[in-house]
Design brief:
The structure is a single chain. This protein has 67 residues and is of the alpha/beta class. It is built from two helices and four strands. Strands 1-2-3-4 form a four-stranded mixed β-sheet.
Length: 67
């Protein structure tokens, strides 16, 4: 992640804690459904906009809820 910090690149992973540690999108399964966590602070820091439709589908980490 350090190599792409502050560049307009969306990072994604299915690793535990990825979004909370600064990744943009983390994928996980819940009751056999693919879900995602979006780190809005990381997206904004990279200069990316996330659509409101996508945000409604995801769990969102904001500046206020980040560790």
């Amino acid at each position: 992640r350090a190599a792409v910090a502050r560049r307009p690149i969306r990072t994604g992973s299915d690793g535990d804690g990825f979004a909370r540690s600064g990744g943009t999108v983390q994928f996980y399964t819940d009751r056999n459904r693919l879900r995602m966590i979006i780190n809005l602070a990381a997206a904004r820091s990279a200069g990316l906009n996330v659509s409101s439709k996508l945000l409604r589908l995801a769990d969102v980490i904001t500046e206020d809820s980040a560790p």
